[in-house]
Amino acid sequence: MQIGKIQMKPLITEKAIMMIEMNNTLCFETEKQRTKGEIKKELEDLLDIKIEGIRTLVRNNKKYAYVKLKKQFPAIDVATKLGVI
Q1: CA 29 → CA 7, 66, 68, 71, distances in Å?
Q2: pTM attached to this predicted model
Q3: Comparing C-alpha atoms, which of 83, 18, 23, 16 is closest to residue 47?
Q4: What angle in degrees, to the nearest 10, is found between the helix axes of 75-82 and 36-47?
Q5: What's the CA gap between 73 and 6, in Å, rounded?
Q6: Which superfamily, per CATH, for 2-82?
Q7: How far is CA 2 from the centre of its chain?
Q8: What is the tens place of the pLDDT at every residue in 5-62?
Q9: 1-31: buried (b, 16+ CB within 10 Å) or exposed (e) per residue?
Q10: Do residues 34 and 63 make contact, with C-beta atoms less than 8 angstroms apart?
């Protein structure tokens, strides 16, 4: 998905699907330069959701963002809208 000028790609792995179902968390792969604030603002504006928190992980020169949504916004509905599930 193209967000602004920087790519954010939803992860579709077994672990990512489990996190959607159990923790109300979405996983994205993004560029290393993105900050948590930029990721939060872009996702909230684009998807009309509210985010409870973001954790990031840098591995193999890639950055992964784990986005926990507020309870009013089920991650399974957002993932369906994105075409992940």
Answers
A1: 8, 9, 15, 23
A2: 0.88
A3: 83
A4: 80
A5: 24
A6: RRM (RNA recognition motif) domain (3.30.70.330)
A7: 13
A8: 557 899 999 999 999 999 999 999 999 999 999 999 999 998 999 999 999 999 998 9
A9: eebeeeebebbeeeebbebbeeebbbbbebe
A10: yes
